[in-house]
Specification:
heterodimer, A: mainly alpha, two-stranded antiparallel sheet, 7 helices, 2 strands, 41% helix, B: 522 residues, alpha/beta, six-stranded antiparallel beta sheet, five-stranded parallel beta sheet, 12 helices
Chain lengths: 209, 522
């Protein structure tokens, strides 16, 4: 089963040179300075009993943000849940939305500005904190922003971030790639039994050699 | 692969390698004609196709910049993507679903039969169904169309079972698994369909007909084909006598190359073909090549389309198996009692989870949308495809404000729905919903037209040079050695998926070109 890594890989450590035996210092974003500069890590747990629990390599998921803060990422996740509310879809998938928007912000200053200002507007409209507001309030706040460019950016990103990944496939029951399993000719392409079978003239039998 | 010199003036140059270009190439090569095919896209294969909707889209789709205008919803939701067609060897035959229906007899006489519909540029074709029949038969044999030539129909998948059950309850009489260019049993050196469910992403088993792995290899085997992928034609040149003399193209390194030609056949699909003719304007042909009628780029048709999806209490798993092997043909007739001219077909359709999210209702969000995505495995779907009205104002023009990667003006696709299109669509939506309700649907959804997969009519054929671009052989009226070889030729759109008719016209055009070459007429 293919596994999708949702934790950003940490900077590759150079190999230990045999010559000196010295272990090189790794450039890890764990200093207080870096945190204060705005990178953040979103973390959560995959719910036991969910479609993902058996498939995930670990019940804990983590996403590293390079440009947006942890709070900004959390706000985007919550906005994603308002736009596309799926009770059965893990936070781990909504975190991908934050990750992908963070990447956009990292490569485009205009996008970063739009996202930061949009998130600030969400917070302001919620009376301080979008994330801490009630679900009802969050829905109102998001609805009021429909039609704005920030809204369009986030909504548009959701289409791929939320629905085009293995976790979403598992959650919604879409198996994805089929050719390597021999397609569906022997795996239930016509296994529906709750309606009468079509006539042979309309639907001839499959050729099995 | 043959290699013809760029200064060889005896070759036929074909622009595009899809249903029109690929078929024309093979037919001419089989007759001993030397052919150079210039294809803008790269070479893929069954091995390189990807069972992943977005990745495949990046691999195969025509993504060069385009703009849109008009009141069609595609201009709002997909302003930069008027069409979902291909830039790859084999063209859109890599991506198509395989539906291979003949036009109905009366559809070649749309103007006579439907009358003069206001706001439409209806015209009879300059050929009849009877004229085309022998070549339709050849095309069906070439492509291996099910329910012809002794080829059994495909077995129906779950999505078809739902359509069939509803169709029976409603009293429809013509519901079956379609006339598909997909092998139901081994044929022509290709295996039978494995029901992979990724027809739109390139058939990895090769059961579906595509020029990529049928016509082009057969042409190559004759030793007469010089196929050049990643060769993007940017201009067709002509001599002082007004005959085309060759083409200029950008090779895979972006360098300009020139290939001389005895004959040029343009098969870039209905947006690029007129665009190329317009871009090839010169001192002698100020409005573009073959455009004395002013019709190059005009009468753009995309078929009346839309989809109906339906959610059921029980699972459907519509993604399992062929994307489109299922049809109801009862509504394809011309019957103005329904409130519109022309007819439409109802064909099963499935999208994967990623494309469902993108296309179910572009721009939407919220509880209702989420409700549908939650029920993905319990959803059935169909696509409605019918005859839209040609309009002079629906057209491809050069957008001089936006330049492509070569500095050339991008094509703008302008489209306004005709009221006949709207009436037909509403009727089709309602009937599709009835079919699914009869099968037990809990809810139904009306999905608007996708970026156009059927693109037609922009270099229409007709009897005279005053009102058409080419004759019944696709030979342009103005320039005897310049041919239109794709769906741009269509005078009207009919209700049927166009590929079979495009292949049919290409086989017939090859006969004509070969005969004209023998007679030294061109």
């Amino acid at each position: 089963m293919r596994v999708i890594s949702i934790a950003s890989p940490v900077a590759e450590a150079a190999a230990c040179g045999e010559a000196s035996g010295e272990v090189p210092k790794l450039d890890l974003p764990l200093t207080r300075r870096r945190f204060l500069e705005g990178s953040g890590i979103l973390m959560g747990r995959i719910a036991a009993g969910s479609a993902l629990y058996a498939l995930a390599p670990s019940p804990v998921w983590a996403v590293e943000l390079k440009t947006l803060s942890k709070d900004e990422g959390a706000a985007l996740m919550k906005m994603g849940r308002v736009l596309f509310p799926h009770a059965k879809l893990s936070d781990a998938v909504y975190a991908l939305l934050a990750k992908d928007l963070d990447a956009k912000a990292g490569s485009d200053a205009g996008a970063a500005k739009q996202l930061r200002e949009g998130i600030a507007a969400l917070n302001q409209a919620s009376g301080g904190s979008f994330v801490k507001a009630s679900e009802k309030k969050r829905r109102e706040v998001v609805k009021a922003m429909a039609g704005q460019p920030f809204f369009a950016t986030v909504r548009g990103q959701c289409i791929t971030s939320l629905y085009d990944n293995d976790m979403a496939y598992a959650t919604f029951g879409y198996p994805g790639s089929a050719w390597e399993k021999g397609g569906y000719i022997t795996r239930g392409f016509q296994d529906l039994k709750w309606l009468p079978a079509p006539s042979l003239a309309a639907s001839p039998k499959p050729y099995m050699g | 692969m043959a290699k013809f010199d760029q200064n060889d003036e005896s070759v036929v140059v074909i622009i595009g390698s899809g249903a029109g270009g690929g078929t024309l190439a093979n037919e001419l090569c089989q007759k001993g004609v030397n052919v150079v095919v210039l294809e803008a896209g790269a070479m893929q294969s069954n091995a390189s196709f990807i069972n992943d909707e977005w990745k495949s889209f990046s691999q195969l789709a025509w993504l060069d910049a385009r703009t849109t205008s008009g009141n069609w919803r595609v201009a709002k939701d997909f302003a930069g993507l008027p069409a979902w067609i291909c830039k790859t060897v084999g063209g859109s035959t890599t991506h198509w679903a395989g539906a291979s229906l003949r036009f109905q007899e009366h559809e070649f006489r749309a103007r006579t039969v439907y009358g003069d519909i206001k706001g439409a540029s209806l015209m009879d074709w300059p050929l009849t169904f009877k004229d085309l029949e022998p070549w339709y038969a050849k095309a069906e044999d070439k492509m291996g169309v099910t329910r012809t030539n002794g080829i059994p129909g495909l077995p129906g998948n779950n999505n078809f079972k739902v359509m069939y059950a509803g169709a029976q309850k409603l009293g429809y009489k013509e519901c079956h698994t379609g006339n598909m260019a997909i092998n139901s049993q081994p044929r022509d050196g290709r295996g039978r369909c494995m029901q992979l469910g990724f027809c739109f992403q390139g058939c990895k088993s090769g059961a579906k007909w595509s020029t990529l792995y049928t016509e082009l290899p057969k042409a190559e085997a004759t030793g007469k084909l010089d196929l050049r992928p990643q060769s993007h034609v940017v201009r067709i040149e002509h001599n002082e006598a007004g005959k085309v003399s060759g083409v200029v193209y950008r090779d895979k390194d972006g360098k300009e190359q020139r290939q001389k030609a005895r004959i040029v056949a343009v098969a870039g699909n209905s947006i690029e073909t007129p665009r190329l003719l317009l871009m090839s304007a010169s001192e002698k042909f100020k409005d573009g090549l073959a455009n004395s009628s002013g019709q190059v780029g005009r009468n753009y048709m995309r078929h009346m389309t839309g989809s109906v999806y339906a959610a059921f209490k029980e699972p459907v798993h519509m993604y399992r198996g062929t994307t489109m092997a299922g049809i109801i043909q009862d509504e394809a007739r011309h019957d103005t009692k329904r409130g519109f001219a022309g007819g439409y077909e109802m064909e099963t359709l499935s999208l994967g989870l990623p494309f469902m999210a993108a296309f179910l209702d572009p721009g939407t969000w919220g509880d209702e949308f989420a409700w549908w995505m939650d029920r993905y495995t319990h959803t059935a779907g169909m696509w409605l495809v019918g005859e839209d009205m040609p309009r002079e104002s629906n057209r491809i023009t050069l957008n001089t404000n936006v330049k492509d990667q070569w500095g050339n003006p991008v094509p703008n696709v302008h489209f306004d729905d005709h009221e006949n299109d709207v009436a037909m669509r509403n009727h089709a939506f309602a009937q599709g919903e009835k079919v699914y309700k009869a099968a037990g649907a809990v809810r139904t959804y009306r999905t608007p037209p996708y970026p156009s997969t059927h693109n037609l009519g922009t270099c229409r054929m007709g009897k005279t040079a005053a009102d058409s671009v080419c004759n019944s052989f696709g030979q342009t009226h103005d320039i005897a050695n310049l041919f239109i070889s794709d769906g741009s030729q269509f005078t009207t759109g009919g209700a049927e998926n166009p590929t079979l008719t495009i292949v049919t016209l290409a086989i017939r055009q090859a006969d004509y070109i070969a005969q004209q070459m023998s007679a030294r007429a061109i």
